[in-house]
Amino acid sequence: MGFTLGATLLSSPIYSFMAAETGNPNKMKNNKDKLGIALVGLGQYSTNQLAPALEETENCYLAGIVTGTPTKAEAWKEKYNIPDKNIYNYENFDEIANNDNIDIVYVVLPISMHAEYTIRAAKAKKHVICEKPMALNAEEAQSMVDACAENGVLLAIGYRLHYEPFNQRVMELGQNEVFGKVQSIEAVDNSNMTRGSLDVWRLNKDLAGGGPLMDLGIYCVQGAVYTMGKNPVAVTARFGEVTEPEYFHEVEQSITWEMEFEGGVVAKCESSYADKEGKNLLAGKAENGWWRLEPAYGYSGKKGETSEGKMDLPNIYEQVSQMDSQVESFRKGEQSKTPGEMGVRDMKIIMAIYESANNDGKRVELKF
Ligand code: NAD
Questions:
Q1: How far is residue 209's CA from residue 141's CA, in Å, rounded to a whole number?
Q2: Which residues fall within 8 angstroms of residue 40, CB to CB, at 6 or more apart?
Q3: Model pTM?
């Protein structure tokens, strides 16, 4: 799965920042060597994970924010010492093109807004990190990749699990056939949305594109693909029963699907927004052994075991590791480990899963 960057991009003028410090007086003294990130959308994930992570990152820092809520702008300005000139709203966002403090725009909005803000950021000649899932569908995702290529900027997806030890270990076990050839995979990522508000974008089809498959199931899709180190050849899927119609009249309540790989290996997957236990796992069985992460996808508390015993690995601050690694790639003019093209691939798989579920579980073949 080679995601490489054309040599032409490396010679683009936007890479001038790689060679020299910007010397910008607005950067805090200790941030001189760091690239400036602007977070777009100051919801839960930005507030509780990304902004605190950006206080610990070595290669980047929180330079700016983009928000439609003036009170949030005030609070963030105070808390993170953000100069007024680095604070934008959704209307004047494009002026970010003229701001040397901002090297990277990180899109942390509802899914329906990812494409618009990624493309606007690319036109402003800023590198982009976009949250998962990348877009509402594969075509929209491809348009984001194209816009970044046309504007000579790099696009990375916020797939944090590629940057943490437990999931990295699974990649190694599966792809390097440490226990022989992989024979089967199981992946489940469930949450419970039925205790909370009905007025949330995740339950709105226009904003979210779909339900748990888009939001959580994407981790299972990823888990299966990075266990195998190759793309699936076909999928079959079924929507689960709707027992909470008050919540799930626009997006699916739950879905189960199978991803079939060359040689007949099958990944059995499940994702639900109505599981009180919040099942969360990635497991694999190979010729001579097995492994199991449970929980596999949360921000912390991961646990792993193989047929040889417990995985002795640390839980790290994944968002720190992710952003530091992605920014290091950007500095070198290289694609990150999780580039836009990977996001497009995943949207193709997700669209095929929905196509199958909408057609009584028919087998949908995939071509990449
Ligand atoms: P959230 O609802 O907490 O925040 C969304 C933000 O978008 C809010 O600041 C809201 O004001 C803003 N917004 C702008 N226009 C909006 C509109 N029309 N409707 C609703 N909100 C609007 O959501 P979140 O949990 O922070 O998720 C944001 C993104 O981050 C999503 O793409 C999500 O999938 C992703 N995410 C990723 C992870 C991860 O582990 N990588 C974890 C959580 C969320």
A1: 13
A2: 65, 66, 93, 105, 106, 107, 108, 109, 117, 121
A3: 0.93
